[in-house]
Amino acid sequence: MKIRILNNSIRFRMSRTEMSALENGYEVSSVTHFLKESLMVVVRTVHSESSIDLYKNKITLSLEKDAVISLNADENHISHRFSQGELSVLFEKDFKCLTERAEDESELYPNPLKSH
């Protein structure tokens, strides 16, 4: 999972393995360790409406399961604007870069603009 935070927007980018886990009802999580604290990010599917919460160094994004299944099959992203604080959330497939990189991109989706 890759996360990008810019002002009042958060972007979540998920690999094929992570999307498959979500589609099958599993949570996907990531932890970033700081000197004295850690930040945990959890993405999960729910049968109710989507939500996002920050509590005690943990961000939890809950997405409607049907939307995640649709995303994995046909769409490239899910976009939400949450009224509390006007937070914008973009949840999307993580595509391979258009230029070659030294990173392992084997779990990423083929880039629809170019295959490599």
Structural features, described:
- The structure is a single chain.
- The chain is mainly beta and 116 residues long.
- The chain has one domain (2-93): Gyrase A, domain 2 (2-Layer Sandwich), CATH 3.30.1360.
- Helix content is 15%, strand content 44%.
- The protein is built from 2 helices and 8 strands.
- The chain has helices spanning 16-23, 65-73, and strands at residues 2-6, 9-14, 28-33, 38-46, 51-55, 58-64, 77-82, 87-93.
- A 4-stranded mixed beta sheet has the order 1-2-8-7. The chain has a 4-stranded mixed beta sheet with strand order 3-4-6-5.
- It is globular.
- The chain starts with a strand and ends in a 23-residue tail after the last strand.
Give a concise summary.
The radius of gyration is 15 Å and the shape is globular.
Mean pLDDT across residues? 83
Regarding quaternary structure, how should these chains be classified? single chain
Roughly what fraction of the amino acids lie in strands? 35-45%
Total DSSP helices: 2
Q: How many angstroms separate the termini?
A: 21 Å
**Topology pattern, helix = H, strand = E:** EEHEEEEHEE
- What is the CATH topology classification name? Gyrase A, domain 2
Gyration radius, in Å: 15 Å
Strand order of the largest sheet: 1-2-8-7
Which sheet architecture does the biggest sheet show?
Answer: 4 strands, mixed
Name of the CATH architecture: 2-Layer Sandwich
How many strands? 8
Which structural class best describes the helix and strand composition? mainly beta
